[in-house]
Amino acid sequence: METPADYRNAHFAYRRAAEAGSDAHAVVHPVVVVGAGPTGLATAIDLVQRGIEVVLVDDDDRLSVGSRAICFSKRSLEVFDRLGCGEAMAAKGVRWHVGKVFFRDELVYAFDLLRESGYRRPAFVNLQQYYVEGYLLERAMQLDNLDVRWKNKVVGIEAPGMRDTGTHGDGCEPIALTIETPDGHYELRARFVVAADGARSPLRKLLGCDSSGRTFKDRFLIADVKMEADFPPERWFWFDPPFHPNQSVLLHRQPDNVWRIDFQLGWDADPELEKAPERVLARVRALLGHDAQFSLEWVSVYTFSCVRMTSFRCGNVLFAGDSAHCMSPFGARGANSGLQDADNLAWKLALVLRGLAPDALLDSYAREREYAADENIRHSTRSTDFITPKTATSRVFRDAVLTLARHHAFARQLVNSGRLSVPSVLADSALNTADRDTFSGSAVLGSVSADAPVDRDGDDDWLLSHLGDTFSLLVFGGTNGLDANARGLLAASTRCRVPVRNVVVLPAGAQVSGTDDAVAATLLFDREGLAAERYDAKAGTAYLIRPDQHVCARWRAGTAADLEAALARALCANVD
Question: Which sign does the torsion angle of CA 182, 185, 191, 196 carry?
Answer without folding.
Answer: positive
